[in-house]
Design a protein that fits this description.
The complex is a heterodimer of chains A (about 500) and B (about 475). With about 500 residues, chain A is an all-alpha fold. Chain A contains 19 helices and 2 strands. In chain A, helix 7 (about 180-185) packs across helix 10 (about 230-255), helix 13 runs antiparallel to helix 15 and helix 16 runs antiparallel to helix 17. The chains are: A mainly alpha (about 500), B mainly alpha (about 475). Chain A: This is NADH:ubiquinone reductase (H(+)-translocating).
């Protein structure tokens, strides 16, 4: 099974890390990538069409799991691509970095496959523990350590809350299998305050992981402090995995329970609305790029939650919309973070104002960032619009037109802060300052700001081109964003296959 | 027939400009072909293409033209090469500029041809992106402010439109515009229900109102026009504003007749709304223009005024009103293009647009003065030039429905004459301002951009049937109320 291969790979990376000298650690990255591709190949060869349960119903091997497996592996490859140059310059113990990444991918895979609450919890913990360490990986940076500690404490708290919720559900229903929960919820006899508490706490715990409001407080600090590739991973990977888990959980365990579900739908809808609004409104005030991306991803979590709120047994469109949105969100964020990483690698700066004049200094990166941000804002021809449209139409169709309205307005608000970044890139002139890291064109005049009024006459320091891996990632990502925006049909067909595994009325 | 123009990879700057110019001639040629081959007697859609696009929502790539579209496609195709010529002097980043411009033109032509609501919306939004960059990077001193204001304002409107669109889709189960129009007329269908139509009408209306612009959503226009480079102002005034009014006719009028009726039938609390708004546009726009000292801002406000005529003709919902409105759309596109190009001429030479800062330019630039006089006269509605026909027909149509408002609106024409003639006097007549002893006459390239427009203005003023014939039939199948 692919998970065994993945575990083996992770251990292999860790072992080799013990032996390889410092400068050869990048081989481990290459090994990880190849390994991930290999695992993906195994999965695609072995699994399509299979629909079995393992370990007596703890894990499911089905289309949904397969889709997310491949998805997470791809995310892993993308993150390694971003981390390559960054790690070489700034991280110690890089071998373990890649190993931890592999373990977290393993955790994500299991989360997508679990059909039972405790298995889900264990998988979630596997992912979280890897992330706790990864966030604190910038050993010499105070911010990174601080972020790591905050994340650990809040993460542990949320895990505890979730576990308590799980135990309450077990106490009320007598089972922790999703199918069992569905059956138990359908029968009115189980209407029990303990059950309500359990479900509520479960949602709270998941809310923490998803950084939904009001459980999002850890996100901005963790995103800002963590090393850039880890921030990207937090934004993309952990959210996608948490959503996969939530999707399966709700679709298999709760949604079949009909009117019980209807009550909770409203709760999730309200949660989603609050998340969108808070995420997007607070983002307006940010000046640090990573914090901005944190709040932006909180906003996106809000939109996705809206889609989750309308899940239903006879309404699988929402599931497809959510999955499509997750894929598009992942790709778009990947290119944005790749662009940011390329910029950070050359200059070491991560404030919005530092991006000034990027269009002149590094047009390729600027263009990639522009496309990524416009897609996140939901402008047509980019995949972000198609995904948002799909999602909001599904939400409206599911009976929550007001929620779709709130979502659309939040999108509008989000455009403003994305435009702020773009304004810096394209419209503000580049600051005529002294040498950026790795900058070849030295500034005349010894690095002091010139007193000349005409800024155009000063040489604009060109940034070096991004590395091959970053350029490739960005190039492929941009093509994907535009392709999916115009012709999403192939991806939608694959998603259909995935969602029909959890919601039979495809 | 949709023309897809994609930005081409280019190497050298001069080559880029020439290549783009030739590329923009292609849609013009196709448009002329359309003009010749268009069947005037057919009221339906011609040259249609219809392919399945996104199956889950029944979205098709459905494009086609009818009388209304073909007029505006012609206008866009005509302004394409003209604007490229007008952009010849742009210095920095000409490749990116031209690429964005082509993208913009794609969006505009696509918008007029789209027959599927989703496609319609996509193209509507598609034009925003290039405009933001074109204004924000190549514009004047306050360009960032103007660009962001334009973008957010218009996006706000289109967001409301999106909600209305989704609501319509939910009721009608399709995105296909002709189908939706049919469904909206079927009595008893959910789409035909009056209350729903009123709300949907509002959603779409605000979306288009920002674009037209209709008071009170017009505040983005003066800033955007003043800060945009000349060619972009031309496109903005010439085409983008018409996107709003086209939407009003295509969606609000054709698809939501009950909603339109509620706001235009002269009865009840809201029955005069559209007409009142049209009137405000005309008079308020003209009064603001009168107060301006910046040449470009003056023309911008006069645009707001002219769009008021379109609106009031539309509000009348009868044949002459609609014909006047659509004709005014086309004519205003041509005339305001001329006006902005003319402002660009003098700005290129003097590097400012203060009307009071000029004086007596007529003695040094006689040809320029002549062309400007032509444009001014056309814009204020001198009979014999195209501006008159559109305005007259609109007011004629509106008179039978909204007597008082129409009479009051004619004040707008007088005010228009006032500010144009006054500007003419301040800029061209009288003593030559010694600062401009050495000012150069209008050059060949600039004349080349103006002459086609001037010819159109004169021809359509004398023989408007050429244009009216194109959309007569399309108008006749609209839900007119005589």
């Amino acid at each position: 099974m692919p998970e065994f291969a993945l575990t083996g790979l992770a251990f292999l990376v860790f072992t080799l890390d013990l032996f390889l000298p410092e400068r050869s650690k990048e081989w481990l990255a290459g090994l990880s990538v190849l390994g991930l591709i290999g695992v993906g190949a195994i999965a695609l060869l072995m699994l399509p069409g299979r629909n079995v349960e393992l370990y007596g119903g703890l894990l499911a091997v089905d289309g949904f799991g397969l889709f997310f497996k491949v998805f997470f592996l791809a995310i892993g490859i993308g993150i390694i691509a971003i981390a390559l140059e960054y790690g070489k310059a700034r991280l110690q113990h890089r071998g373990e970095f890649y190993g931890l990444l592999l373990f977290s991918i393993l955790g994500m895979n299991l989360m997508a496959m679990s059909r039972e609450l405790l298995t889900a919890y264990i998988a979630l913990e596997l992912l979280s523990f890897s992330l706790y360490v990864l966030v604190a990986y910038g050993l010499r940076e105070a911010r990174s350590n601080e972020a790591g500690i905050k994340y650990i404490i809040i993460g542990a708290l949320s895990s505890a809350v979730m576990l308590y919720g799980l135990s309450n559900i077990y106490a009320a229903l007598g089972t922790t299998y999703f199918s069992g929960i569905a059956a138990a919820l359908s029968s009115p006899a189980t209407d029990n305050p303990v059950l309500w508490v359990g479900l509520a706490l479960l949602i709270v715990g998941l809310g923490f992981k998803l950084s939904a409001v009001p459980f999002h407080m850890w996100a901005p600090d963790a995103y800002e402090g963590a090393p850039l590739p880890v921030t990207a991973y937090l934004a993309i990977g952990s959210k996608a995995a948490a959503f996969a888990l939530t999707l399966r959980l709700l679709a298999e365990a709760v949604a079949p329970a009909g009117d019980r579900w209807a009550d909770w739908q409203l709760v999730i809808a309200v949660l989603s609305a609050v998340t969108m609004l808070v995420g997007n409104l607070v983002a307006l005030a940010q000046s640090n790029l990573k914090r901005l991306m944190a709040y932006s991803s909180i906003g996106h979590v809000g939109y996705t939650l809206a889609g989750i709120a309308v899940l239903g047994d006879d309404f699988a469109l929402a599931a497809k919309a959510v999955i499509f949105y997750l894929v598009v969100y992942a790709i778009t964020n990947l290119i944005v973070f790749a662009g940011l990483a390329s910029y950070y690698n050359s200059t070491g700066k991560d404030n919005i104002a530092d991006l000034a004049g990027l269009a002149d200094r590094q047009p390729f990166t600027a263009a990639v960032l522009a496309i990524g941000l416009f897609s996140l804002a939901g402008l047509p021809i980019f995949a972000g619009f198609t995904a948002k449209f799909y999602l909001f139409a599904a939400v409206a169709d599911g009976g929550f037109l007001w929620l779709a309205g709130v979502a659309i307005f939040s999108s509008l608000v989000s455009l403003y802060y994305y435009l702020q970044v773009l304004r810096q890139i394209y419209i503000e002139p580049a600051a005529p300052e002294s040498g950026t890291e790795g900058d070849a064109a030295a500034e005349h005049g010894g690095g002091h700001h010139d007193a000349e009024p005409e800024q155009d006459s000063l040489p604009v320091p060109m940034l070096p081109r991004p590395s091959i891996t970053l350029s490739a990632t960005m190039g492929v990502g941009v093509l994907a964003v535009i392709w999916l925006g115009i012709y999403p049909a192939p991806l939608l067909a694959v998603i259909e296959f995935a969602s029909s595994a959890i919601l039979p009325m495809g | 027939m949709l023309l897809v123009l994609f930005a081409i990879r280019r190497e050298q700057e001069e080559l880029a400009k020439r290549v783009t110019f030739i590329v923009t001639l292609i849609p013009l040629l196709i448009a002329v072909f359309l003009f010749i081959n268009y069947d005037r007697s057919d009221s339906g859609h011609q040259f249609e293409e219809n392919m399945m696009w996104i199956k889950a929502f029944n979205i098709h790539y459905h494009v086609g033209i009818d009388g209304l579209s073909v007029t505006l496609v012609l206008l866009t195709a005509l302004l394409g090469p003209i604007c490229v010529l007008a952009s010849w002097k742009i210095e920095k980043g000409i490749k990116a500029y031209l690429a964005l411009f082509l993208l913009l033109e794609t969006g505009m032509i696509g918008f007029f041809c789209a027959l599927d609501m989703f496609l319609f919306y996509v193209f509507f939004e598609l034009t925003l992106l290039p405009m933001y960059f074109l204004i924000g990077v190549w514009g004047g001193p306050r360009r960032e402010y103007a660009a962001i204001k334009f973008f957010l304002y218009t996006l706000f409107g289109s967001v409301l439109m999106l909600i209305a669109m989704i609501a319509v889709y939910l009721k009608g189960d399709t995105f296909d515009i002709p189908t939706l129009i049919e469904l909206a007329k079927t009595p008893g269908h959910a789409l035909a229900e009056r209350t729903f139509q009123i709300w949907a009408f509002l959603g779409f209306f605000i979306g288009f109102a920002v674009k037209v612009p209709i008071f009170p959503f017009h505040t983005w226009l003066p800033d955007a026009h003043v800060e945009a480079p000349t060619a972009i102002s031309v496109i903005l005034a010439g085409i983008l504003l018409k996107m709003g009014t086209y939407g009003l006719v295509r969606v609000n009028f054709a698809m939501l007749p009950e909603g339109m009726d509620f706001f235009c039938n002269g009865e009840g609390r809201w029955g005069n709304s559209l007409a009142i708004l049209g009137f405000i546009n005309i008079v308020y726009g003209s009064l603001c223009a009168l107060a301006q000292t910046d040449f470009k801002k003056l023309v911008a406000y006069s645009s707001i005024g002219h769009m008021g005529f379109v609106l009031i003709g539309l509000a009348a919902r009868n044949e002459s009103g609609l014909t006047g409105a659509i004709l005014q759309m086309f004519n205003h596109g041509v005339i305001s293009a001329m006006l902005f190009l003319l402002v660009g001429v003098v700005y290129d030479r003097a590097h400012h647009r203060e009307i009071n800062g000029f004086g007596g330019l007529g003695s040094k630039m006689p040809i320029y003065t002549g062309i400007t006089t032509l444009a001014f006269m056309a814009s204020l509605g001198l009979p014999g030039l195209s501006g008159f026909v559109g305005e007259a027909l609109s007011l004629l149509g509106a008179y039978s429905k909204f007597k008082v408002l129409t009479i009051l609106s004619t004040a707008g024409i007088v005010i228009g004459a006032a500010y144009f003639l006054w500007t003419l006097q301040r800029v061209f007549l009288g003593e030559l301002n010694p600062k401009y002893e050495a000012i150069t006459e209008i050059n060949g390239r600039e004349i080349a951009t103006l002459v086609p427009l001037g010819i159109l203005t004169i021809v359509l003023g004398i023989w408007p049937s050429i244009a009216i014939d194109m959309f007569r039939e399309a108008v006749s199948i609209l839900p007119l109320v005589q």
